[in-house]
Write a structure and sequence with these properties.
With about 425 residues, this protein is mainly beta. It is about 10% helix and about 45% strand. The chain contains two helices and 29 strands. The strands form seven sheets. Strands 1, 2, 3, 4 and 5 form a five-stranded antiparallel beta sheet that branches. A four-stranded antiparallel beta sheet has the order 6-7-8-9. A hairpin with a 4-residue loop joins β8 and β9. α1 packs antiparallel against α2.
Length: about 425
Amino acid sequence: MKMKKILLSVISSAIFLSSCMAAGNPSSESEKAMKSDLTAEYSKIESELKTSSHLIGYDGGGFVCDGGGSLYFVTQAYAHSMIIEYDKSSGTGAPLCKNEGCTHDEPGCDANVTSGNSKLAYSDGKLYWMEANKDGAHICCEDVKTAVRAEIKSLPNGGVPAVWDVIFRGGKAFYYVAFFGGDAGAYIGIADLNGEEDMTVLDGANSGILSISLPANVDIQLLGEALYIISVKAVNQSDPNSDINVGIYKYNLSGSELAEVISFSSAEGDIPKASGFKLVSENDMYFMSNETRKICRYDIAEKTCAELFDFSEYGSTYGFTDGEIRDFRIFDDICCAVSVKDKKMVLAAKNLAGELIFETDISEFFGDEGGHPSVWIAGSDSENIYVCYTYQDAGYTYQMNKTVAVPVDGGEPKLLCSNRSSLLKRWH
């Protein structure tokens, strides 16, 4: 891992002060000693991150994780992603970067990660996430006070990672990673972060479960003491209206073999063509129908499907960039939709019986005219639903990224961060 720029800044400052004290005659020996001491300190912190106990007894995390006085989450920026730290006392959020004068849109920014909208975990001053690069997928840990970062676990490598997901619990990382170049490089496993034996739940090279065209259509989640895998396959990937096959698989954490719970197909009439599948309990699967845009429930025990409710009062069209309903997500027993209609942007939430829990106007945060905007629901916790917004101006010179927390009790939404990055810089 490279030397963090915060330490280089300290070195530069220390050298400058040393020069002043020596009346313009800096001691090269003193400089070398100072650099050596700081390099040793960095190495010590990095070593401690690699060898300390990690997340034992931990069960939490998500898109946003609570770090006591701060919240941490990952947001997009041009050509990269970055970790944001939101200070609760001051009500301000900024990239988790210690580099003085950093514009946060250069490769050297401390906050940069290659993790997309990764789930995070926080414990004892350390932040954990999953990221990927040309060498594969890794679990990383950062000391948030010093910005020293270390790779603490390398995951099975099947090529260049395409999509990935992780859940942290009890000192383990439950992960899914798929690689460009075919389904043979797709893995689901349990990585122990404290030196114990790892477990492979599924190796895509040896199973048809992950034989899909888009690995993003696989979702993993923990329910009780079991890991569930939801696989959605388009029969014809080139057809946006293709029929789909859905499979649900269960892996008991005691170490039993992976077993199919149920599979169903839109072609066979088991379910409509749909998206956004979410297993709310061992028996209840929810999703949105493509044709009617209704939220549906599939009863696994009874093998029946029922349409429940929709968000038609907030719009009649669906689309990530141009629909009135831009996005929907199901979190436990709440279904949320973000709507752009009549020059207003609204986040609405209903329970699974279709009763309105809240609707919150968030237009004030997303008032850019023209250009190329998009908005989506990124995650939730017990207090908030988190909405992300990206805007690129008409001339593609800059990108604005914002994250807003919308309280589930109907309270006032708050802006967690606003970061502007140049589109004119060259990333490699």
